[in-house]
Amino acid sequence: MVAHIIDGRELAAELKRHLGAQVQRLSEQGTRPGLATVIAGDDYPSVAYERRVRRLAEELGCHYVCAALSSDVSEADVIAEVGKLDADPRVHGILVLRPLPADVAEAAVYRALDPLKDIEAVHPVNAGLLALGRPRYVPSTPASVFHMLDRYLSSTSDDPAAVYARSNLVVVGRSSNVGKPAMLLAQARNATVVSCDVHSSRAGLLVGHTRAADILVVAAGVPELIGAEHVKEGAVVIDVGINPVSQEGTGKVRLVGDVDFNAVAEKAAAISPVPGGVGPITDVWLLRNTVWAARLAASVQAAQPSWEGLSVPGDLGAAGLVAAPASSSA
Ligand code: NAD
After folding, report:
1. Residue extents of the structural domains in the chain
2. Atom of ligand 1 nearest to the CA of 225
3. CATH number of the domain at 140-272, please?
4. Fold match flag (22-118+279-303 vs 140-272)
5. How far is the CA of 180 from the centre of ligand 1 (A)?
6. Mean pLDDT of residues grouped by 10 in the chain (330 residues)?
7. N or C: which end of the chain has fewer CB within 10 A?
8. 225 lines ligand 1 (CB under 6 A)
9. What is the tally of helices (H) and strands (E) in the chain?
10. CA–CA distance from 30 to each of 21, 26, 49, 67, 153 (Å)?
């Protein structure tokens, strides 16, 4: 079997076209969507990500601002920057880039975010809503994974809802920003979900679980962790990993996924590449969440003179962002 390659760039371009029209419409109605990023230090993948979303925001006509902080910034200063962005009416969505400096507690920074601007659902309120199956925002990377899967399954002759319902779906990696929300989105589609992490590998359990997967999502941050021996014939494999690896001899850096693409492509029914897979969709999805946040802000402002104590209007619950099959329930 030679796998179908799920082209993330093509899906991202399609999303971007839709989003451009939405930004224009909202701007004409007086709400120009605004994104802010907070970055501390010069971590290579974070700097590259910030540059990509800045370019995309500007291309789409969104307001964009970046709080670039030093690698030795204090927790209080990061929280103060977040507070300024919370208070800035031009900013609708805030992304705090990881890693933060070792002395800065991620949880404390996330708690400082205005939940209505927390487009990656890292504030406990938004993480809780997601876990309860009533998301306000769906974090961009897992949302992109399931956008790919939904679209790929829709392109086959099978009913996607039925495929999910009869699938063993294994997620490797259980970080709060990727692996855990990916599990929740898989459950919302009625898949049978197994979560593996580094402890599964250490216990020698990883290969047994991944080989049973009809759908395998890998977000471990370990270059080419998953080889052909980990994959069942005919599985659908989504590789979230983006790992900069120096090439021997030249020292040039290239990006490698968590899956050995060439080996696995010979066994899988479909596979996403790295680069050109989940990454480009994630970039656009972040802006999509920003547009959603701008719509929420506009509707809240129209309804009440103040943000204080307001809940999100029911008809703007984020259900529309979850491309779950109609029969799913979380
Ligand atoms: P993380 O370090 O926060 O979490 C990694 C997870 O993988 C942990 O749960 C850990 O236990 C698990 N893990 C580590 N080694 C393992 C092993 N040998 N076997 C099984 N599980 C193992 O990382 P993250 O933020 O979730 O990111 C994971 C990868 O995804 C990274 O390569 C990152 O660059 C990439 N990423 C890509 C995108 C994108 O848009 N494509 C977005 C975010 C992260």
Report:
1. 22-118+279-303, 140-272
2. 18
3. 3.40.50.720
4. yes
5. 11
6. 94 96 95 98 93 98 98 98 98 97 97 97 96 94 97 96 98 96 96 98 98 98 98 98 92 94 98 98 98 92 46 36 36
7. N
8. yes
9. 12, 11
10. 14, 6, 29, 25, 38
